[in-house]
Amino acid sequence: MTVYQANPVRGRLNSLTFRLLDRYAHHLLGDRKQALFADLPETIAELGPGTGANFRYYRPGTRVIAIEPNPHMRSALTAHAAARGIAVDLRARPAEDTGLPSASVDVVVCTLVLCTVPDPLAAVRETLRVLRPGGRLIFVEHVAGEGGYARLQRGLARPWRWFFEGCEVRRDTEHILRDAGFTEIKLERYTLKSVFGPINPQIAGVAIR
Ligand SMILES: C[S@@+](CC[C@H](N)C(=O)[O-])C[C@H]1O[C@@H](n2cnc3c(N)ncnc32)[C@H](O)[C@@H]1O
């Protein structure tokens, strides 16, 4: 299995980038996330939480098992958690191998992460393993687009992957999720209106074990 290794320079740069883009991301995705994250249990697991962009949507007091292998995200992640009253249980592990017990969590959250994990199918299978029967994977992901977006993604794939440490703008995450073996998937495809064209084609929804 290829393991994600944070680059010492780009890992820090990405941490800074996500912190700077926090409000813009909230502007773009806040309503959608608020709807998806309504009704979360007290303890959830989050894959690749980065700098904690989702913490603003969680109830204060929520315990988040944070599966985040990039050490450069940690200080912003813990500061963000403290500011929002979130208890973070940080695990420096990849989503493909979380180390969590089988059937131990009710909800796994994953936003803009399956684009970057080296083995997204392994990450989704690992999620299925740790979810209890009936448990939910809540996801928001950018995906391969069509027409003009496909051309834009083709043109920018290499520099994007380099800067964002492995982020694949042409990944067919919908099929990865559909092939993984969930009992039910509720998924919406939409086009974001952001200045970051390659990540505008997106999917969001809930996959139930
Ligand atoms: C684009 S950022 C998204 C951060 C956050 N989820 C958000 O919505 O803003 C991708 C995140 O995935 C993390 N990541 C990369 N490879 C990973 C892996 N194999 N397992 C878990 N997280 C990973 C990165 O360190 C980074 O925090």
UniProtKB/TrEMBL annotation:
InterPro entries the UniProt entry points to: Methyltransf_11 (IPR013216), SAM-dependent_MTases_sf (IPR029063), Thiol_S-MT (IPR052356)
Entry GO MF terms: S-adenosylmethionine-dependent methyltransferase activity
Biological process terms in GO annotation: methylation
Domain Methyltransferase type span(s) in chain numbering: 46-139
Keywords: Methyltransferase, Transferase
A Pfam family the protein falls into: Methyltransf_11
Superkingdom of origin: Bacteria
Protein's name according to its UniProt entry: Methyltransferase
